[in-house]
Amino acid sequence: MINVMQRRSFASAVSAAAAAPFLLGAAPSDTDRTQSAAADGRLKRDMVAALENELQDRNTARAVAAWIFDIGFDWTPAAAPISEFDFLIAYAFGNRPPANGGDPAKVLAEPGPMNELLADVVARIRTKRTMTVYAQWEIAHFLKTKYNMSQVIAIDPVIAEDGTITYLSTDGVAAQVAEQRKSNPGGLGTAGVVGWRDHIKRCVLTTEGRGMTALAPEGFTMPDTYDPESGQPWTRRRDLYLVHDMNAQWGMMRTELISRMYPNG
Known about the structure:
This protein is of the alpha/beta class. The protein has helices at residues 4-19, 30-55, 58-72, 113-128, 137-145, 170-181, 200-209, 238-261, and strands spanning 79-80, 87-90, 133-136, 152-155, 158-159, 165-166, 190-194, 213-217. Strand 3, helix 5 (137-145) and strand 4 (152-155) form a beta-alpha-beta unit.
């Protein structure tokens, strides 16, 4: 078990890591980078020590600590200037229940205020550089009605013949975009990814998993004000959403690790 001193050391490292800034909105100084790297280093060492004490197995502790750090403590995606992007992908976050009621399985949800905030980010990017936007329908709604934006391709939910609506997952959206990009003469290209503050890392990873180069846009801060009336319970509050997202990341990592360690099954 972890002793008291280990817990205090671990807690101190966690606090330091949590205080590190989210760096998409502004470039970090050399001092910021140095302090953040030092805090991360202390945290990783304490995690390995705590797990080794618990598991009595240093090699496993080192491997598992690295995975826990990646999923639990690193929420910042790789980023690049918007000049490097061929197109944008905007991933939705939450929604609102149908305004006039009805069967939610067959009545389209309302886009909701969080997706309007994401549309605002896309609009800010487009004032700097015009490029095609593949936007999940909730965001596309605002891009068209609020901004009258051109070159917007909506990624819609799947509606069956009986009217049943299947909303796309993050991977479902990425798959749709990859399919549409296949005919592009230059290949799939490089995607600039717009997503919720706590979702964007997974959006970038998922986009990459579908064969596209993917990066967050430097200099643009992603929204993070949660909607307590969201129609998706896991997007109503931050602590609950982080558990949801980590669970999804663990599933992705599990698949990757099995494939890497046992490529032949």
